[in-house]
Amino acid sequence: MKQITVTVNGQPHSAEVEPRLLLVHLIRENLNLTGTHIGCDTSSCGACTVLLDGKSVKSCTVLAVQANGKSVSTVEGLCAPGAALNPLQEGFKENHGLHCGFCTPGMMMRATELLEHNPDPTEDEIRWGISGNLCRCTGYNNIVKAILYAGAKMRGEEPASTEP
Ligand code: FES
Ligand code: FES
Questions:
Q1: Which 3 state secondary structure label does DSSP give 7?
Q2: Which molecular function GO terms apply here (predicted)?
């Protein structure tokens, strides 16, 4: 067993874990943060995407021990309970960017990093940026609109109309 300390959404957590434990299982089972989903467990779908020291990673491909001493952000950290929605959350809500919602936490964490590096992305840049995250429901168009909306909000601009 290995002793690790990981800061998750700003809170330090210490745990004794098996070296083979995946980060996604630490997040979901040890910390009870079940917003991070498991779609494939084989690094294909992106549902498990979180930020590790600010960089988006598929947490089913990272060992918990690799996160030792690092900072993890999950979808739960996007907005404190009772606080106003994060621009991405608002964007997904306003643009119908989710249907079943299974892919949504991973999409939003991936989009968080994307907008941090590229605050004013084109539609093509967004499509490329989320190409590692699969959605079986939406056809992606409304996800792209949601991210464009969030980018505009973050830049202090009026988001484009959400009408089709
Ligand atoms: Fe990690 Fe699908 S569960 S990529
Ligand atoms: Fe269902 Fe994306 S909203 S998988």
A1: strand
A2: 2 iron, 2 sulfur cluster binding; metal ion binding; oxidoreductase activity
